[in-house]
Amino acid sequence: MMLSWHDHLMIVPIVLPMLVAGLMLLLGEGRATAKAVVNVVATVALLAVAIALLRQADAGPVRVAVYLAANWPAPFGIALALDRLSAIMLLLTAIMALGSLLYSLARWHRAGVHFHPLFQLQLMGLNGAFLTADLFNLFVFFEILLAASYGLLLHGSGPQRVKAGLHYIAVNLVGSSLFLIGVALIYGVTGTLNMADVAVRIGQVAGSDRMLMEAGAAILGVAFLIKAGAWPLNFWLPPSYAAASPPAAALFSIMTKVGVYVILRLSLLMFGEQAGESSGFVQQWILYIGLATLTFGTLGMLASQNTGRLAGFAVIISSGTLLSAIGFGRDSVTAAALFYLVSSTLALGAFFLLQELMERSRTFGADLLAVTLEAFGLDRSVDAEEDMSTTDIGVAIPAAMAFLGLSFIACALVLSGLPPLSGFVAKFALLTTILNPDGLTPEVGNPEPVLAWVLLGLLVVSGLTTVVSLTRIGIRAFWVPSSRAQPRLRVIEVFPIAAMLVLGIVLMVQAQPAMRYFTDTARALHHPGDYVRGIMSARQAGPGGANP
Question: In this predicted model, what pLDDT tens digit does every residue of 120-170 receive, in sequence order?
Fold first, then answer.
């Protein structure tokens, strides 16, 4: 039986950006409007495909769709695999991409050449990393997204971007080298790079080779800890994200989740119960690194005076929270962590876009929250106050100021985990699943309760620190009276920020079905037998069978 068009849908998130990027390069450098139209149409199409793939992945209790790109059976050929985790990451990438792209159309896409092709290549690398079921192809897509990110970080030029870009490139080149070394060691021991096949063979590794295999896995993990922004490998992140243009920084907020995604996927796939003596090899280390990252991000946010650097440390706090949750190794904690991943990514993307508008308001001297009479050039003299006794008291807040103020408050609530928005729901779910009765009364000598209370304390302190830091930034940005004109905002700048925040509200309102999805995702990750069987048993397309 031949494949239908629906069976080929899984390859679209990779092939479509590649073809669109090539088309835009053929258009030349001077046709920015045409490239923008093509980019928007392609990104909207990617969003529609991501929604369709999400529905496909959630069609049944266990659903792993496999696409054999060269029609060679696993583990010999290139295999793409779609499950609930990869589907939600594809959808989140498409949402962040569309929001960033629409925001860039106000002015940023004209700040340099090749913005649109680089943007699509970035999406190709991200989507490929989430879909691939092979370590070597993971490296290929990893390099594609990194190469595109180099150009996007430098987009707009300027000495600050060049300096941060050089540091960013140097660090990621080191990470790529470590990636290759780790993959080579794993291949040398197991004889395969297919993720499912590695999971099958890792429990059969001889004792004399086990240390070499674990060393390769550790080196591979370091490469992705760099990308995830984990301490002490994250010194590059705050200055790089602060220097990037707002649309590029908003898209970069999903890039750190690539590292988290791979660590979550491979740690449970390679070192689960089927790994024999290597079972749980990296779990405790991930927990310790996550706690250290969360601590570093908290201190960095408290010390930040610049809005861009503050947003960068917010990314680090998000990564630290996710790594800590992964380190506990429970499916219920993983489910809550996935809810937090989606919530925090949407809020971070909105905040990266919002910060430029906040700085613009400071440039114009707008008073956004405490709208004083001075901000409107009114006289505060005694005579003026007497004249006001016969008039209406108070000044209406302009729409632009109201939007910026409310958006800032929404971002602050989500990032700090205060009620009632999705950030509170995510952190409450995390703490509930970590501090459950079974977790508080384990076997004697198990250090998990102590670490659970440490994580509780760090989450509370990081939330308080986020409130303090954002309040300080907000006062400086919003409560400074001036007689200058109010900032002018374009609809195309306002819409992406509002859409991301509204999606966060939808996530809060639909918390129950969302948690059901994330719970099913976490169970499948912690019991990867269906994932392994789905890949290894995928049939070739043609007269003898169909590629599911």
Answer: 999 999 999 999 988 889 999 999 998 998 888 888 777 888 888 888 888
What is the 8-class DSSP label of residue 546? -
Closest among 302, 307, 332 to 467, alpha carbons compared: 302
Closest CA to 355 of 304, 293, 300, 303: 304
What local confidence, expressed as pLDDT, does residue 275 receive?
65
Helix (H) or strand (E) holding 79: strand 79-82
Cα–Cα distance measured from residue 102 to residue 106, given in angstroms and rounded to the nearest whole number? 8
Separation in Å, CA 486 to CA 105, 373, 495: 22, 14, 19
Which residue matches tokens 């809020």? 347
Helix locations, 202-274, DSSP H? 207-228, 237-243, 246-270
Q: Is 306 helix (H, G, I), strand (E, B) or coil?
A: coil
Written as six digits, the tokens of 374 are: 């001075």
For 92-103, the pLDDT digits (tens) are 999 999 999 999
Cα(272)–Cα(547) distance, rounded to whole angstroms? Answer: 28
How far the first Cα of the chain sits from its last, in Å, is 11
Which residue stretches of 271-381 are H helix? 283-303, 307-328, 331-364
Q: What is residue 177's three-state secondary structure?
A: helix
DSSP 83: -
**What are the beta bridge partners of residue 79?**
68
Q: pTM of the predicted model, to two decimals?
A: 0.86
Report whether 466 contacts 317 (CB < 8 A). yes
Exposed, middle or buried: residue 17 (CB in 10 Å: 0-12, 13-18, 19+)?
A: buried
Query: How many CA atoms within 13 Å lie on the side-chain side of 454?
Result: 17
Q: CA-CA distance, 76 to 506, in Å (whole number)?
A: 43
Handedness of CA 522, 525, 527, 531 (dihedral sign): positive
